[in-house]
Amino acid sequence: MIAAAALAALAIVCAVGAWRLNSARWTTRAPHTAVVLWQALGVTWGLATTGALLAYAFEPYGKGALLGLRDFLVAAYTGGHGTMPLDLPHVLALIAGMTMFTVLVAVLVGATFQTLRARRRHRMLLALIARDEPGVPGVRVVDHPGAAAYCVPGLRSQVVVSAGTLALLSPDELTAVLAHEAAHARERHDLVLLPFAALCRAMPFSGVVRGAQSSVELLIEMAADDRARRFCSPRRLATALLRFGTAGSVPTPSGALGANSGVMARVERLITPQSALPRRFRISVVGFAVMLSASAPLLWLLPS
């Protein structure tokens, strides 16, 4: 029961931590650090919850979740030789744990394939309708009057803007938006969002999960803004975002990352920048995230 209790307690800590992190104010001052913590909370919660169920299910083996699962599978493969009978509560915990683990993996794999398929279709469409513009090298331009700017991530990421965007923004504002989209491509923010989108599909009824996805979406936009600020004025990026908001920007295609999410919060952050968090605090948060991520796999090995 020690392993099951420890994993259950860890899952509760992660759920409470996610709930508190949703309303934390320091995250906008260090979006990269906050995203790392969000990732650690999500991964640890999934492993801790399934691990608690499996650790309890395989308690009769006295070897913990992982080794108990191994012995159970070996016994099942050899026709039950040497296996220990499981009573009804342990069988129910086994079914619940394996079902939850399977659902989480299946949803993640399904979301990955769906996203990749949507991107492949969009790249094929861009090959037909997009053009190169000498004034913005390396960027694909779509002849659409609406305001649109987004990144199609991948091994060969593409930054796409509409003709309406070229007409709407000044050269400095366009540079700021393109730097923002390039940050999405360089830091592969799509890979950060994918697990949270999958978890939201698996648990659409959970307000904490929906809040986590929304928070991470906003944080990666702020992280891209911080990257763009190295190449342009924050006020230029802020005015570009306001122009997008007032012009009625085009929705970002499925599988892409746009620049028009959480506009007002980002504009306020760009116009009135806050002081950066102390380096010691950011290192402490990252260290805690690493230890948190390692705790669940180690507890899977803890004997019952």
UniProtKB/TrEMBL annotation:
<dbReference type="InterPro" id="IPR052173">
    <property type="entry name" value="Beta-lactam_resp_regulator"/>
</dbReference>
<keyword id="KW-0862">Zinc</keyword>
<keyword id="KW-1133">Transmembrane helix</keyword>
<feature type="transmembrane region" description="Helical">
    <location>
        <begin position="283"/>
        <end position="302"/>
    </location>
</feature>
<dbReference type="GO" id="GO:0004222">
    <property type="term" value="F:metalloendopeptidase activity"/>
</dbReference>
<keyword id="KW-0479">Metal-binding</keyword>
<keyword id="KW-0472">Membrane</keyword>
<keyword id="KW-0482">Metalloprotease</keyword>
<feature type="transmembrane region" description="Helical">
    <location>
        <begin position="36"/>
        <end position="58"/>
    </location>
</feature>
<dbReference type="InterPro" id="IPR001915">
    <property type="entry name" value="Peptidase_M48"/>
</dbReference>
<feature type="transmembrane region" description="Helical">
    <location>
        <begin position="90"/>
        <end position="113"/>
    </location>
</feature>
<keyword id="KW-0645">Protease</keyword>
<feature type="domain" description="Peptidase M48">
    <location>
        <begin position="117"/>
        <end position="208"/>
    </location>
</feature>
<dbReference type="Pfam" id="PF01435">
    <property type="entry name" value="Peptidase_M48"/>
</dbReference>
<keyword id="KW-0812">Transmembrane</keyword>
<comment type="similarity">
    <text>Belongs to the peptidase M48 family.</text>
</comment>
<dbReference type="GO" id="GO:0006508">
    <property type="term" value="P:proteolysis"/>
</dbReference>
<protein>
    <submittedName>
        <fullName>Integral membrane protein</fullName>
    </submittedName>
</protein>
<keyword id="KW-0378">Hydrolase</keyword>
<dbReference type="GO" id="GO:0046872">
    <property type="term" value="F:metal ion binding"/>
</dbReference>
